[in-house]
Task: structure prediction
Amino acid sequence: MIVKDIRTTALSIPFTDPPRWSADYNRPREILVVEIETASGVTGMGYLMVLSGGLRTIQACIEELVAPVVLGRSIMEVEAIWQDIWQATYWVGRMGVTVFAQSAIDIALWDALGKRAGLPLYQLWGGAALCGGGGKALRSYGSGCWRGLGRDGMIEKAKDYVDAGFDAIKMQTGHMYSHAEDVANVAAMREALGDGVQIMVDVNMGWTADEAIEVGRRLDDYNIHWLEEPVVAEDFAGYFRIADALKTRVVGGESHFTHYDLAPFFETPKIPILQPDMMRGGLTQLRRIATLAHAKGIRIAPHLFHELMVHLMAAIPNPDVLEYINFLDDLWVDPVLPQGNLLTPPDRPGHGLAFKPEVLKDFALDR
Result:
């Protein structure tokens, strides 16, 4: 169980269905794959998909700062290793690149541990069998009704999700539109979908607190399910002021790093659903965040990566909903796909995910 080798591969892959969160977004899928091999031959895999650059920087951070902490350690020490990496990178870390780097390592360690135990992660963590095993299915919503598609494009994407069996979708506001246009877009979406489909609205930190209150009160009239990330991540006072002012629930958390950064949401539990991102703390942190949230009556709806988050959600007491989007579906040997709007974790050991060999070969960037 001793870690003998850590390998990283940077990939650059064109999107099959490019995101349009801005009119001119034109980056490929930038993915970092981390493989941790033990002395007995078990290999765990972790991965990140960075959305705004930094792939090589994270790769260098793993090699320079993180790998030396992990080599020679037992994969049984996965949570202790997380803490040791945290301490070893504290001077230059606590957020950003170092946490992304240790998150990839953490995911790979948990995958290796699951494979060593012969258990899928959700079972390793004590989760229930799902869908046909007597447990509850995991509900997901259709994401990616991008603002850059325009009003008609967002509605068309949402209708495709509804036709596929989803009863909830997420659309974007802010950044490209005036407040009046944002409200009109949400109104048109509600009219197009009717009252039986939940509409999540994502601002992507595009407003001030005052703007969020002004626009949010108008959006209250359209029975939206939540208003997501209305302000920048560090504006906790703004979050709480918005939550107090609106009928609509306010959610967030995807841009926060670890449970330390989320602490104000636990201390003042006005945000009923948190959306932690696995790249900002790894699986060790997501499990800890879920525990802290549960103690405050807060539910978890993780950001992206449904193919891995389905394990987490099957093993925590406070799952809300998974975010489904097809960012990586075409890259996996055995993708985790929704049946209607329901997702089930694979029963393969570890996280059960493997990139297609040709993906790793054909799209690897030269060192």
Notes: The longest strand covers residues 3-13.
